């Protein structure tokens, strides 16, 4: 006997399910299949998984339904997991940049299934200008005019193909990376220390922190000042937004280190909020942090005590609460543990969407649940781990010989699966140093600094 329930209550129930559960529901009967395939449900899943879906139209991606788009994007995300080392093309792109160079993707995802679209990065060069590079061709595609003042910071907004720079005179400029002239320019009075561009549900914005602890919010593309608040007595050292940009994490690394979480809407909607709505997390000596992917309100912090060489992890859930008719933020500690059995200190960390904490010492890759139960250990010898890249799908380990180990998070467990190694076949002199790593769906980039010789980008791109 087929089960028929009214459509509205059924849709309400189905709206709480994940993609796998919706697919199971669709097998019950024809009526349930139709409801479980609804564009309303699948668009909600897409928006929860990828914030930029709020600004997408399916026609731009050749898809007829949001269900099709969900599986298409998931297929894209796992492209590196399905690959083999021989599926990558290796290039070295000589670029003139400073030691602190930090390239940012200016393209949104990289290649699509039919091979259209390419990975591109934007970076600051040592001659006071920024440039964009086609990673697949290894060629420069655009560069700005030489600027009068030294460019200190740069960020990008791939969703709009926009770059933002700040120079030593605290001049903010917004570039579309096609034209020679900046789209907008804004000057503030105090030197900048932190810069971040994000796409929110209200507006695309730029967050700027100065050395006096002021946080500025500017609108893109005109750099109109939305709000300015003094959040710390000192300059902001770290700034990171949660997966859907509901929260902003701010850190200063002075002896009296402070960690603060701010409700994003209180920065954007000045007519509703006279002051930022925030809370300070009681977790001293914070050295690392990571928002749980695809869970908007959970963050894990890592602290190190240099005297005792101990490392501690704490996981907090952020909640909005109404206290005396005012909105307040509370950070609730849900789990914590210490690493005491390792002589080497933890350097890098990340978190999976299943709350698995991955961290690296010089010779080990370690996995724990949020309560400290050890799940996996990967030993590295004679290589040493230099850094980690952690995203919702992959963990990429950078070794001191220039090679990359690619891992994938298991779908059915909280563990990691080692996929393959991209071996660097070029001899690296002792003076060489990989000072940054980034990746998108189909490319991995390492910033190689060779002193005193030239620097270059090590790029691996998946063949279409």
From TrEMBL:
InterPro entries per record: F-box-like_dom_sf, F-box_dom, F-box_SCF_Substrate_Recog, WD40/YVTN_repeat-like_dom_sf, WD40_repeat_dom_sf
CDD domains: F-box_FBXW12
Origin superkingdom: Eukaryota
Pathway(s) where this gene product acts: Protein modification; protein ubiquitination
Domain F-box, first and last residues per copy: 1-45
Sections of the chain in a coiled coil: none
SUPFAM superfamilies: F-box domain, WD40 repeat-like
Pfam assignment, any one: F-box-like
Keywords tagged on the record: Ubl conjugation pathway
GO cellular component, one term: cytoplasm
Name the UniProt record assigns to this protein: F-box/WD repeat-containing protein 15-like
Organism of derivation: Mus caroli
